[in-house]
Design a protein that fits this description.
Radius of gyration: 20 Å
Order of helices and strands: EHEHEHHHHHHH
Distance between the termini: 41 Å
Helix content: 55-70%
Largest sheet: 3 strands, parallel
Oligomer: single chain
Number of helices: 9
C-alpha cells in the first residue's frame, strides 16, 4: 500500500522495528516506493537508543508513553499539517470539590492521572470508550507477560526476562501505572546485564503492585461506565 507516515514499534516479534525499517528502505532504494517518514516508538530513552533508530533508517523518534501533544508535533514536522488537525477531542470536566472519596485518592496514588487523561483526550464523540478499550487490552495481556517473566526468572533466562519486562514497562506506563513500570525497568536493566540475582523477589513485588493496579483500574472503569 501507500502510506504518508509509519509509526514503527521497535520491539516486535519475528521482525523487529529496526529490521522492518531496513527492509522498507531497501525497497525504496530499488525504486519500488517513495521515501516514507518512519517514526520510532520505543520505551527506551537512552541516547544510544535514539542513535540506533536513526542508523537503521528511521527519521524521528517518539518515547513511550506517547502524549497527544508530542504526536501532534511529529505529524506536523513530517506531514506539514497543523498539530491539531484531525485530532478533535471531547474533554471531560473535573470532578466537583468534595466528590473524591478516600478510595479514589488511593487509586490516584497508584495511577498517574495525566497518562489516563492523555488516553481520554483521544476519545471521539459517539465512539465507544477508548479508555475502557485500552485498559481492557492491558488487563488481558499483562497476566501472560507476568507469567513469562516468572518462568524466565525461574529458569535463569535473563534475555527472556528482559524482553517481558520491556513489554510490560511500556504498557504499564501507558495506563499510568508508573511504579509498576519502574519495577519493570529495574528487571529490564538486570536482564540487559545478564543478572538475575534478586530477580525472583522483584517479580514478586511486581505481582503485588499489579494486583493493586488491577483494582484501581477496575474502579476507574466502573466510574467511567456510570458517568
Amino acid at each position: 500500500g501507500s502510506y504518508d507516515l509509519i509509526l514503527m514499534d521497535c520491539q516486535m516479534p519475528r521482525l523487529d522495528g529496526f529490521e522492518a525499517t531496513r527492509a522498507i528502505r531497501r525497497e525504496e532504494q530499488d525504486g519500488q516506493k517513495k521515501h516514507i517518514p518512519i517514526i520510532a516508538l520505543t520505551a527506551n530513552v537512552m541516547a544510544e537508543d535514539r542513535e540506533r533508530c536513526l542508523k537503521s533508517g528511521m527519521d524521528d523518534y517518539l518515547p513511550k508513553p506517547l502524549s497527544r501533544e508530542e504526536l501532534g508535533r511529529v505529524l506536523a514536522r513530517w506531514l506539514g499539517a497543523s498539530p491539531a488537525s484531525g485530532m478533535a477531542v471531547v474533554g471531560e470536566p473535573p470532578p466537583a470539590a468534595g466528590q473524591i472519596s478516600q478510595t479514589v485518592a488511593e487509586q490516584e496514588s497508584l495511577l498517574n492521572q495525566k497518562a489516563l487523561d492523555a488516553i481520554r483526550a483521544l476519545q471521539r464523540e459517539g465512539a465507544p470508550s477508548i479508555l475502557n478499550k485500552i485498559v481492557g487490552l492491558y488487563l488481558d495481556s499483562a497476566p501472560e507477560i507476568i507469567r513469562q517473566m516468572n518462568a524466565a526468572t525461574g529458569r535463569g533466562d535473563a534475555p527472556a526476562m528482559q524482553k517481558a519486562a520491556h513489554s510490560l514497562k511500556s504498557s504499564s506506563a501507558n495506563v499510568g501505572a508508573l511504579q509498576l513500570s519502574a519495577l519493570c525497568n529495574e528487571l529490564e536493566m538486570m536482564g540487559r546485564e545478564n543478572n538475575i540475582n534478586g530477580a525472583v523477589q522483584k517479580v514478586q513485588a511486581l505481582e503485588a503492585e499489579f494486583e493493586r493496579v488491577i483494582h484501581a483500574l477496575a474502579e476507574i472503569i466502573a466510574r467511567e461506565v456510570q458517568a
